[in-house]
Each structure stands twice: as C-alpha cells, then as structure tokens.
Design a protein that fits this description.
The complex is a heterodimer of chains A (237) and B (252). By secondary structure, chain A is mainly alpha-helical. Chain A is built from 9 helices and 2 strands; from the N terminus they run H-H-H-H-H-H-E-E-H-H-H. Chain A has one domain: 3 helical TM bundles of succinate and fumarate reductases (Up-down Bundle). Chain A has a two-stranded antiparallel sheet. In chain A, strand 1 and strand 2 form a beta hairpin. Chain A is globular, with a radius of gyration of 21 Å. The termini of chain A are far apart. Chain B has 2 domains: 100 residues, Ubiquitin-like (UB roll) (Roll), CATH 3.10.20.30; 129 residues, Alpha-helical ferredoxin (Fumarate Reductase Iron-sulfur Protein, Chain B, domain 2), CATH 1.10.1060.10. Chain B is 33% helix and 13% strand. Chain B is built from 8 helices and 7 strands; from the N terminus they run E-E-H-E-E-E-E-E-H-H-H-H-H-H-H. In chain B, the strands form 2 sheets. Chain B has a 5-stranded mixed beta sheet with strand order 2-1-5-3-4. In chain B, a hairpin with a 2-residue loop joins strand 6 and strand 7. Classes of the chains: A mainly alpha (237), B alpha+beta (252). At the A-B interface, helix 1, helix 2, helix 4 and helix 8 of A face strand 4, helix 6, helix 7 and helix 8 of B.
C-alpha cells in the first residue's frame, strides 16, 4: 500500500473519523470559549470596550480572514463527519427496536448524546444566520460608525443592541444557545474519550467537567441577549 | 424467597425466515418458578407451545452459565435484560414480578442478519476476529515458565478485555450498532501481552477495517455497550483501540 493512500484510508476509517471529529470539536470549543470571553464586553453599558475589542480583531487584517476561513473549514469538516456518522448509523440498524431502554450504570447515553445530529444541524443553520447578520451586517457605509482612538470604525455594538432589542431575536439566540449546551454536554465528553486521554477512574470526573463547561458556555452566551434586552430596550431604536 | 409460581406476559418477535416479515406475538406463560432463568422460562413457554401443537420460539443458547455468549435477547429494551453483568441465561425470574409484561426482541443490526425468531447470524464478529484477533506462536517444546515477563497490571487489564464472550450485546445496545467494544476488547487484550506483539500493528488496522466492511456503525461514545456487556468490559478498551490505531498508522 502506498503511503499517502494509507494515511487517507486511516483518516477515513471509523477510528480516524472519530479522532477527527474529536480534534475539530476540541478546536471549535476553544473558539467558542474565546468568542464568549470577547463578547462578555457586551455586559458593559458603555459601547467602547466592545467596539474596541472588535476593532482589535479587525486590525489583524489578512490574518483574521485566514483564521475565519480556517474556522469555516473546521466547522464544515466537523459537520460533514457528524452527518456521515448519522447516515452510517441509520444503515447499520435498518430495523429498530420496539422498546429501547438504557441499562444505566456506566452508560453515558442521554437526550444530549442521542440528539447530536439534530443539535449540530440547528447550530450549523444558526451559524449561517449569525454570520450574515453580524459579520456581513450593516457597516460604516450604512452609518454604523463610531470613533475609537481617533479612528472611524464599525459600530458593531449598535447593531448587537438593535438585534437584541427585538424579543424574537432574543428568544431565537437563547433557544439556539440551549442547543449549544446540549451539543457540548455530550460533545466535550465524547471528544475527550475519543482522544483517548483517560483512565476509567477519571471517567466520571471528566464527564462532570464536560457538563460544567457545557453549562457555563451555554449560560454565558444566552445571558448576553437577555441582559441587553433588559438594559437597553428602547434605548437605541 | 417465595417459591410462588408467577404468570409472565410475553411479547415476542416471531419471524419464520429472513425473507418473510416478522411480527410480535403475545404469550401468557403460567407456572413460572422464580428460580428459573430467563431461558428456562422460554423452555417452559416452548413446552406449552409444543403441547398445543404450535411451533416453539427459536432462541440461541448453549452453556447456560454465562460463558459461551450464545444468548441474544433484548429484554424490555436492554440486551440480556435489566441486570448488569449477566447474560440472559443468568437472569433469574425472581427479578420480575407476577403479572409482568416483558418484550423480547432479537439483536438488531444490519451486520447481524435475521435467521429465525430471536436467532440472528453473528458470524460478522467471527470475521472481525479472523481479520487479526489471533497470535502466531511456534509449535514444539513449551517455553520455560516465566520466560515472558508480564506485569500484574497488564495481565489484569488483558484478562478484563479477554473476558469478552463475543455475544454481541454491545452491538445490540449501541444506538449506532457499532462493534467497537467487541473489536477493541480483542485488540486491547492482545496488545497488552507479549504474545500479541508480532501482529500488533496490522491486527488493529485489519480488524478496524473489517468492522467497517461488515456494516457496523461508528462509535459515538454513548457508553451503552459497557452497561450492556455481560462481562462489564470498560470502554477504556475503545480508547486503547484508538491509541493502538494511531500508533500503527504513525509508526508505519
């Protein structure tokens, strides 16, 4: 067998697919953590810290675009692997059971683990909406501008406030962030188990850490639209 | 413990042939002794069916002491029934109550084709073993005792994985019908012992490839296999299989 073929068949094998899902998943969790830490600037009533943060990101220019494209590819690969696993699962059990029950004990089967494909697809659709709305939303040319350090920059803070002064957008974002929590509840545990870094005696601890991280990230994100709705409703529109 | 006889209401999957559609049939089994195993309750049902001139329910069984891996019944949605760490043959009727309703289904997986009633064809597992679950050993005079040092930790773990009886409950329990725990138990068992060293790399690659070819699903780390395993084999075996796989690919 030729070397490149060997590596490709290894990456596309059941074990390879699972490892790639885990690696891309961990990288996406790291992105989600950094995204949340930046967005926490929205908790300030002043618009400057958040606009300062987005301006700093954009000052990286080409580097930012490369990272964005990399993130996009990560998400597409992760989604492709997840959908492939779901399709294969359907083929692997054509006739289902009349009764399905978990035997408990060491089982990590839960609503979260059984709905990974559904929550994943919802998150993918959300991402498209979110990027169109925020990344490619109104810019300086549409009057969304502010002055940071004597320089005219995009006033993303104003856009965020406008979006979250609409109760329907708040409900949508809160709902999707709950889906993110469900996805990460099984996802973080599963990625760590896939990357084979644990002994059975750490399993419960890692499962609990995954739960904690999933709740923290989901609550951290969903509190932002609610906070903005309560504090800024009617202030900007 | 009471020896009062119980009546059990069964809903059993009946299918005459792979090509014919199957259906659930309800049976009421009176006279069930709480000391009977689940399989003995099926013997009683089959005697009652035979006496009425009906065709008995086919089910796989052999040793009836939890070591052969023949029994293959999903009982109330759980492979081998609700009790952990036992095969269906060791599940006693005292775990059920008089008048209980119990649903009994065969293992469901595309890689386990239907044969009849509760009997499915599990030779796909044999083909995974044939792809690499063996060792090469020289014939001739036996080697000196203790000439192959194995640490206590390794031998204990190897034994835990070697306890797999190949029943396929892991596949039946897995929401994805994955055979990862079965395959990983064999890979882990042999990778931990010096006897398994010569074929270590090609074993993991070939067995993982065969698992895919047989049409088993991907592992999603649900961990339901470990809960269903009559030998309680840990999913740490699957983590080890992944490590072995990476070592085999990266190390050429």
């Amino acid at each position: 067998m030729k070397e490149p073929n060997k590596l490709l068949s290894a990456l596309t094998s059941q074990v390879g697919r699972k490892l790639l899902t885990g690696i891309t998943g961990v990288l996406l969790v790291l992105f989600v953590i950094s995204h949340l830490s930046g967005n926490l600037a929205l908790l300030r009533s002043d618009s400057a810290p958040f606009n300062q943060y987005t301006q700093t990101l954009h000052s990286f220019g080409m580097l930012l675009i490369i990272v964005e494209i990399g993130l996009g590819l990560l998400i597409l690969l992760h989604a492709y692997l997840g959908i492939a696993i779901m399709l294969r699962k359907r083929a692997a059990r054509k006739q289902g059971y009349d009764v399905v029950a978990s035997k408990g004990g060491p089982s990590r089967q839960s609503l979260s683990s059984r709905t990974m494909a559904v929550t994943g697809i919802i998150l993918l659709i959300f991402l498209v909406i979110h990027i169109v709305q925020m990344r490619f939303g109104p810019n300086i040319s549409q009057g969304y501008s502010t002055i940071i350090n004597g320089q005219e920059v995009r006033d993303l803070h104003r856009l965020v406030l406008e979006v979250f002064s609409n109760i329907w957008w708040v409900a949508f974002y809160v709902g999707v962030m709950m889906m993110l929590g469900f996805h990460l509840r099984h996802g973080i545990w599963s990625a760590l188990q896939s990357l084979a870094a644990m002994k059975p005696r750490y399993s419960t601890a890692i499962y609990s850490v995954a739960f904690l991280l999933a709740v923290l990230l989901a609550v951290g994100f969903l509190i932002l639209p609610i906070w903005i709705y309560i504090n800024h409703r009617g202030a900007t529109v | 413990m009471s020896d009062t006889l119980m009546t059990i209401h069964l809903k059993v999957w009946r299918q005459d042939a792979p090509t014919q559609p199957g259906k659930f049939v309800q049976y009421t089994v009176p006279g069930v002794n709480p000391h009977m195993s689940f399989l003995e309750m099926f013997d009683l049902l089959n005697e009652q069916l035979s006496a009425k001139g009906e065709i008995p329910v086919e089910f796989d069984n052999d040793c009836r002491e939890g070591i052969c891996g023949s029994c293959s019944m999903v009982i109330n949605g759980m492979p081998h029934g609700p009790q952990r760490g036992t095969a269906a043959c060791q599940l006693h009727m005292r775990h059920f109550k008089d008048g209980d309703h119990v649903v009994v289904e065969p293992w469901r997986a595309a890689a386990f084709p239907m044969i009849r009633d509760l009997v499915v064809d599990r030779t796909s597992l044999d083909r995974i073993i044939a792809a690499g679950g063996y060792i090469s050993t020289n014939t001739g005079a036996p080697p000196d005792a203790n000439s192959l040092p194995v640490s206590k930790d390794d031998s204990d773990r190897a034994f835990d994985y070697a306890a797999c009886i190949g029943c396929g409950a892991c596949v039946a329990a897995c929401p994805n019908a994955s055979a990862s725990l079965f395959t990983a138990a064999k890979i882990g068992h042999l990778a931990l012992l010096p006897q398994g060293a010569p074929e270590r790399k090609r074993r993991v690659i070939n067995m993982v490839e065969q698992m895919e070819k047989e049409g088993f699903g991907d592992c999603s780390n649900h961990g339901e296999c470990e809960a269903a395993c009559p030998k309680e084999i840990s999913i740490s075996a699957i983590a080890m299989m992944r490590r072995e796989y990476v070592k085999a690919v990266v190390g050429g």
